[in-house]
Design goal:
Elements: H1 5-19, E1 22-23, H2 24-31, H3 35-43, E2 49-52, E3 55-58, H4 65-88, E4 97-100, H5 106-112, E5 119-123, H6 126-132, E6 138-142, E7 146-148, E8 153-155, H7 157-164, E9 170-174, E10 177-179, E11 183-186, H8 189-201, E12 204-208, E13 220-223, E14 230-232, H9 239-248
Organism: Serratia fonticola
Protein name: DeoR family transcriptional regulator
Domain HTH deoR-type: 5-57
Length: 254
């Protein structure tokens, strides 16, 4: 008889306690389930289980090896975001009006925007505006309002009105969670109105997110997957996970 999630979480903790360090794939084999199932279990563990560099740990009993693995994981995370930013450039053409969301991946796109073609860029994040303001080929529109230090972004009702009156060719959106049935989500409530307005008004909607965001749901839902055109992610997304999304949304490009 198949175990339910609670039973699997108990088994995972027992296995980790015995073996100290195990990779996600090893635990999946021990429990005779898919790696995707284990990743969902980790996401549902309320922070008790953490994944660092492909290894699964009990957050209440992190071994000394976890610190070095964490550093490797952060380095890997950075390279993933750089790759995503580079991939996104292929979607950009001369004369485009672009929307760049806030988020930790978006600066890698901003830094890689072409230098030799005219672009109009709209953003509401201070760190993105700082990068784009140095570029002579970019006409920059910065949306203002109340400043939120945690995301270096602004929010304001006037910003929403402005977005409704601008022809955005391509919107590059960030998401903290990408789920097959719940759609796209983020952690900050003040981002939702801007994201929803952009999704409704932009011609092409492209999400930039690393593979750790898949099968994750954050508190604030802002779009259904059928509302977007493509997701640009890194090469670590498992093929079975990609196929599961495409089975439900065959027109979605991942």
């Amino acid at each position: 008889m198949a175990m339910n999630r609670g039973e699997r979480l108990t088994q995972i903790l027992d296995v980790i306690k015995t073996n100290s360090m195990l990779k996600l794939g090893d635990i999946a084999k021990i429990l005779s389930v898919s790696e995707m199932t284990i990743r969902r279990d980790i996401a549902a563990s309320s922070g008790r289980l953490v994944q660092l560099g492909g290894y699964i740990f009990d957050s209440k009993n992190l071994p000394s090896e976890a610190s070095s693995i964490s550093e490797q994981h952060l380095d890997r995370h950075t390279s993933q975001k750089q790759l995503i930013g580079h991939k996104a450039i292929a979607h950009i053409q001369a004369g485009d009006t672009l929307f760049l969301d806030c988020g930790t991946t978006m600066p890698y796109l901003a830094r890689n925007l072409p230098l030799d073609i005219p672009l109009t860029c709209i953003c509401y994040s201070l760190n993105i505006a700082e990068i784009l303001s140095r570029r002579s080929n970019i006409s920059l529109l910065m949306l203002g309002g109340l400043y939120h230090p945690s995301s270096q972004s602004f929010s304001d009702e006037q910003a929403l009105a402005t977005l409704k009156n601008i022809g955005i060719n391509k919107a590059f959106l960030s998401a903290s969670g990408i789920h097959r049935t719940r759609g796209l989500s983020c952690s900050n409530f003040y981002e939702v109105a801007i994201k929803r307005t952009v999704v409704k008004n932009a011609i092409q909607k492209i999400v930039l997110a690393d593979s750790s965001k898949f099968d994750v749901v954050k508190p604030m839902l802002f779009a259904d997957l059928q509302d977007i055109d493509a997701i640009i992610t890194d090469d670590d997304l498992m093929q079975e996970e990609r196929e599961a999304f495409l089975e439900l949304y065959p027109e979605l490009k991942i």
